[in-house]
Amino acid sequence: MVRTLVNLAIFLATAAIALLLASLLIPGFHLDPAGFVVAILVFAIAQALVEWLVRSIFHRSAPTVAGIAGLISTFLALWITSLFGGVKFDGIGAWILATVVVWLITAILGWVAAKFISPRFDRSAARR
Fold this sequence. Notes:
By secondary structure, the protein is mainly alpha-helical. The chain is about 80% helix and about 5% strand. The longest helix is centred in the C-terminal third of the chain and has 36 residues. It starts with a helix and ends with a helix.
C-alpha cells in the first residue's frame, strides 16, 4: 500500500515538474497558474490511460517502440489536458516541442525515482 502511494506521488511529482519546466522553456507553451493542479491531475490521468492503451496496441514489440509509445501517449495526454484549460499551445510547433520536453523530463525523473527512491520503500516493507 505504501509503495503504491509512493509511486503515485512520484508520478504526480514528475508530471508537475515536467509541465512546469516545459512552460518555462518553451515560449509557445502556457501553463495557467490557476489551473496548474487541474492540469497536473488531468495530464497524469490521461498519460496513464493513453500510455496503457498505446502499450496494449504495441505489446508484442514493446521494447522497440517504448520510446515512440511514450511520445505518442505524451502528445495525446497534452492534447487532452489542453481541453480542460490548464494548458495552452500557441501552435503545433510548441505542442510537438512540449511533447518531447515533457516526455524526456518524465522519463529521466521516473528513472531516477525508480533507481533511488522506490527501492528504499521496498527495503522498509521487507523489514516488517
